[in-house]
Amino acid sequence: MSRRPSSPDSEIARRAYASFAERYDAAAPTKPHNALYERPASLSLLGDVAGRDVIDAGCGSGICSEKLARRGARVRAFDITPEMLGLARKRCAGLDVDIREGDLSKPLDWLASNSADAILCSLALDYVRDLAPVFSEFHRVARQGAHLVFSMGHPMRDWTDPRSRGDANYFATNLWGLHWGGFGAPNPYVESYRRPLQDILNGLADAGWRLDRFVEPLPLAEMEAVDPEHFRELSFSPAFICVRAIK
């Protein structure tokens, strides 16, 4: 792990994923941490999406966008990384998915107010330093009664891991990075933000969202056969949080 001078949020995400977009796209659909852990938990919180207008915020290579569209949703997806967007367009070709470049750290000005029945933001908010404007923009584009579902690194997991904690205070938001394994060589260097839980949940409430469900997911039983080491680890201590809020 190492720290670098702070960079604009868009640069952090774009630089990280542009370096291994195709390798990510090949691995993530079946990678246990994604396919048998975070993704099922997040999609379960989202519920039935048939006939609904759903935003996939930080869509990456379109894995969730495809699933949502095949379940009957009208999907508007965006991401900051052009390489990921190209892969998403291939994956979602022929489906009811509108894909464009967009930055979570900036206004989502192409999305109309009160136009979404649900918003999914899967493992993308860790690349944004200030969550308050993002939650406010999500609230603006959501219809009354809409669900927001997002997942992030678990704050306590980040705090107890010396790689992400370093010498920082738990109550401070800090940028950290490490080389990721599991996506082939060379191991990509990925930076993200570690922050306290109160900043996440209070930012959500301040933007007008009502917390509906807070989940520290357990791995699916199938993970034990394909990745027993991480199955045991995640059965003992969570890596992510998954949150559902209602407007």
Automatic annotation (TrEMBL):
Residues 56-150 form the Methyltransferase type domain. GO terms for molecular function: polyprenyldihydroxybenzoate methyltransferase activity. Coiled coil: none annotated. Pfam families: Methyltransf_11. It comes from the Bacteria. GO terms for biological process: methylation. This is SAM-dependent methyltransferase. It comes from Aminobacter aganoensis. The lineage of its organism: Bacteria, Pseudomonadati, Pseudomonadota, Alphaproteobacteria, Hyphomicrobiales.
